Every structure is written in C-alpha cells, then in structure tokens.
Amino acid sequence: MAKKRVRVPKESQSYIDGTAPPKIPEIEKAAVKYVNYRDSRMEAGEEEVRLKVKLISIMKEHQITEYNFDGFMVQLNHVDEDTVKVKKLRAAGSDE
Fold it and tell me: How far apart are CA 16 and CA 21, in angstroms?
C-alpha cells in the first residue's frame, strides 16, 4: 500500500526590492482555498478506490454478483476487469 505524502507548505518566492509584482490578496486567498479543496478531493478519491477494492473482494469471497439491502443495489461486473456499482433504489411511488 502506498504511503501518504505529507504536504509541507512551501515558502513563497522572494523578489528583489522594487521588482515584486503587486499583491492581490483576493487571488492568493482563493488559490489557497482551491488547492486545499483539490488536495482533499484527491485524498478522498484514493480512499474511494481502496473501499471499492474491499467491496469487490468481499463480494467475490461470498460468490455474490448482486446484493440488495435498505434501498441499495450492489452489482459486481466482470467485463474487462472487476468493477462494482452501488445504486440507491427509489422507493415505489416516489417522485424523486
């Protein structure tokens, strides 16, 4: 299993006096928020893949290709590679 990388914030680049571009705090703040969100989303994606592999493994262990519970349907597919789909089923008579 791959080790998680610890992200160490880098110091911002320094400029020679009088040559620094003008600071726009609004852009800097928005960029930092975006990067933090993007990084957390990427980490969540890695966790999703790990959980998907675990679900496939459990379904194979029990030799099940379809499973229904509490309004969810789980399907194991064997086309080119094993994949799993989990769908939330609509309740009968529901307009959602």
Answer: 10
CA distance 82 to 55: 11
Residue 69 placed within a domain: yes
For residue 85, pLDDT over 70 is answered with yes
* pLDDT > 50? residue 4: yes
Tokens at 25, concatenated:
């705090």
What is the residue range of 59's domain?
Answer: 25-88
Tokens 């966790």 correspond to 47
Contacts 24+ apart (CB under 8 A), 20-27: none
| C-beta neighbour count of 76 within 10 angstroms | 19
Q: Do 68 and 85 meet the contact criterion of CB atoms below 8 Å apart?
A: no
- How many domains does one find in the chain? 1
Task: Decide if 13 is inside a domain.
Answer: no
**Residue 17 belongs to some domain of the structure:** no
Q: Is residue 72 part of a domain?
A: yes
